[in-house]
């Protein structure tokens, strides 16, 4: 009991001495031991690393999980050392709604079929997003978080100890200075001087030892940068793979919708037109919405000015001649690889001339680029006025 009381009294005395020294330094009434320039640079670099790591970590968390409530929930689970429950991504939820709607509308209807196709792509996008979040969390977020909660806490603790050692050292210097002044005034040897010198030697040793420990930790920030650089490369690789997957999924979906679009619209609108008026079936149902009107030509075994191969759905590019009017310029949106010799391969952002012919599928146009000619899909083009 007596030992505890003495220890508490000693701790209180040390705390009071440090507080007095710190206050007098702030008021300019006491001298302060300054660290060397290299040490100060290490401290500044460490603080800079900590501040930017925190900002990058928080913003990456926002990028991966924009919902703040979900982020708070994940934080609580992490602090409780419990597994975060699996959460459905927005893409997967949209896929679920589309599939249910398709079943309700009829999976065999044009709208139902398209909902199923789009829903399946959304499901694949959601799964890719889930994998990207998992990968980025492991390879990027976790190392940053480990630095802040591990290495940085150790550095901060040792810096606080160093600060206390410095305050003790400067307080001993001040006491020795006062003892020497009193000794000179009394003109005799003062035991206080010897005691103050002994305390100064001890505090100087402790300060030097703690300064070396802190210096080694601060110099380790360089290896931290190397580790974070490697993690950054892994994060970029994960993000690249994710966006490449998304791009490929959407290209596949676009091709599926492009191939079924003509069938859907011809089955829905052209079929209705045939039942209403036999003569209406001869006019192209969609071409008028995308290109200048082409004069309606009755459907006969041979179409004037147009080879039979076009009317039959088989195109011989050498036999096709552009109409006198109705051609337009178009910009290619995506690369397209020709499936056969009747189609024209496309490169993104190039300009071509396009036109429609009677009897053609409304989802296709004739494209010309120099001496090259062939069918091109409308969905890959931006028609210009």
Automatic annotation (TrEMBL):
CDD domains: BAR_Endophilin_B2, SH3_Endophilin_B2
Any GO BP: membrane organization
SUPFAM superfamilies the record matches: BAR/IMD domain-like (SSF103657), SH3-domain (SSF50044)
Location of this chain's protein in the cell: Cytoplasm
A Gene Ontology cellular-component term: membrane
Superkingdom per UniProt: Eukaryota
Keywords per UniProt: Coiled coil, Cytoplasm, SH3 domain
Cited InterPro entries: AH/BAR_dom_sf, BAR_dom, Endophilin_B2_SH3, Endophilin_SH3RF, SH3-like_dom_sf, SH3_domain
Assembly, per entry: Homodimer, and heterodimer with SH3GLB1.
Family statement: Belongs to the endophilin family.
Protein name as catalogued: Endophilin-B2
Origin organism lineage: Eukaryota, Metazoa, Chordata, Craniata, Vertebrata
Gene: SH3GLB2
